[in-house]
RNA-binding protein
Amino acid sequence: MGKSIYVGNLSYSSTEDELRELFEQFGEVHSARVISDRETGKSRGFGFVEMASVDAELAIESVNGTVFAGRTLRVNEARPREPRPPRRW
């Protein structure tokens, strides 16, 4: 089973391919996503990587605190998303 990794403080110009390439050094990457704003389509400065659990632990330890595209990354195991109240229009 895979583990989801949170990657924070990404450069706003970072792509999903660059994120995947960064984590592939530590094992097979199942998916890499840079989260973008719904309205503007611009990066929100964070993303998620899905990897095998064994590889994910090494990747978290190795990448956390490193500089990537000029920014110091914050990397840890992703927490489940908390439910949010429905939006009212």
Q: What stands out?
A: Residues 40 and 76 are 27 Å apart (CA to CA).
